[in-house]
Design brief:
By secondary structure, the protein is α+β, with helices and mostly antiparallel strands. The chain has three helices and 14 strands. It folds into two domains: 94 residues; 149 residues, Glucose Permease (Domain IIA) (Distorted Sandwich), CATH 2.70.70.10.
Amino acid sequence: MAIKKKYTICLIPSDHGPQKMFEVNAGVLRFVAILSVLTLILVIVSYIFLIPRATRYENLHREVTELESDRARYIQMMEDFRKMQSMYQYVRRLLGVDMMASMDSLSAADSLTIHTPSVRRDIVVLDNVPSVAPVKGLITQGFDAGIPELFIDQHKGIDIACREGTPVLAAASGWVVFSGWTLGLGHTVIISHGSGYVTVYGHNSINLVRNRQSVERGQRIALSGNSGYSSGPHLHFEIIKHGQPLDPSLYIPEYSVRNRER
């Protein structure tokens, strides 16, 4: 009968205490050595193949999350665009054919004042034309009269750089048809002035007027800010007549002078 080979393991304490000796069968020792080698190989294979795949999966998961976030923002932008279209149609109806027909029927003596049911006072026609600068500052982006294109931002107003919190003034007398939040312009005020004129004031830090409130020329209606899609504190200002955007520099003397200086 073959004698199984054995190994003796001796443990010697550093404090010269009693030694401990263990006998280990050669087969068991080989099994432990093979198991250790296999474990080391498994760790190396995992490091080479599995960890990079896990990293790629993490990156793909992050990209999918970003795409889902972009898609949600796009859907929100389209929804906001539809809301803006509905608001635009509302303003057009408010200042549309019925009002203009009633204005044409007025006599020359009565044409200096127009009484509107939603206004708490009479609005003088001469006050309807926007002519007061909402804020004083540098025009950083001018009026773009180009043909609208899909996904191309046409700038139907001007941007005036100013400190955040600067008082925003009504360009003319009228009544507020919208005071609230829009995705692109943030806190926005829209004022109807009669005679087809509408002005838009966007990126405010706070609106100081409410819907259906009458305002005077030069009255504070908001404080400038950086809300909505904005690269810095400024006021986005538009003038619209009968649904058509107009260049504010043609109506506001200060902006016209600044444009010529630039």
